[in-house]
Amino acid sequence: MSRSLSLALFCISLSALPAQATSCFLVQDSQGKTVSRQGECSTRMSPASTFKIPLSLMGYDSGFLRTATLPALPYNGKDEAFLPQWAQTTTPAHWMRYSVVWYSQRLTQSLGMDKFQRYVDAFAYGNRDLSGNMGKHDGLTQSWLGSSLAISPDEQAAFLTRLVRHELPVSDEAYRCTRDILRLPDMDGWQIYGKTGNASRRSARGEKLQTGWFVGWASKGGRTLVFVSNLHDETPNTTFASQRARAIWLEKLPAILQHATH
Question: What start and end residues bound the annotated signal peptide (predicted)?
Fold first, then answer.
C-alpha cells in the first residue's frame, strides 16, 4: 500500500476521532514559540515510554549507559516479554527502538530512588511524583508506567525545549548519546528524533482505555522544532494509541516543516 493511500485511509478514520479520544498536536520552535497548537494540551497523563527520553539522559549522565551498544544486558527469563524483542540481550539502541521495559527498570535501579528523584526534580518533569502504585512502594520501577508520574503535552514540549537547548543539568555526552539513539529517518531534509509511548488505564465502567504519545524534535539548517502528538482515549480502541498518535504526526508535520523551511 502506498504512503499516500495509507494516509488517505487514516484521514478517513480521523473523522470519528473527536468522539472517541481527546487529542493534542503541538509544535514549538526552540525558543518556545508556538508554531501549531490543536486540541487539549494541558491535561496530565502517564508519559509511558516517552519517559525513556529523560531516562536516557539520566543513564548516560550517571554512567550506567555508555554507548549505543553498551551495556548489553542479557534477558533473565523472568521479566515480562511483551514483544519477542524484549526476550533477548538488549543494548541502549535496542532498548529505545523496542521500548524494553525491563531495561528501563535496570537503569532506575542503578540510580536508586534518591538520585532518580533528584534528576526528575532537576528536569521539572511533569508532576515529579515517583511514588508509584498506591501501597506497593514500586515507584522506582513502575512510576512512569500508567502510575503516579504524569505530564501534560505542554509540559512535554517544555521539557523537550530545554533538552534541545541543552538547559538540563546533564553532560554533553548524555545529550549526544541520547540524540543518537532517538534518531529516526529524515523527512524532507529534516533530521527527526522521537519516541512513542503507550499506557492503559481503566474507565469508571472498567473499560481498558489507552493514552498514546509521539514526541520529539526536528532539526534542519540551524532551526529546531519540538513536537508533541497525544491521544487520550475515551472509548476502547484495539489499535495502539501510540501508533495513532504517530500517524497523526505523519499526516500533519510535513506541511509544517515545509512551511518552516521558507
Answer: 1-21
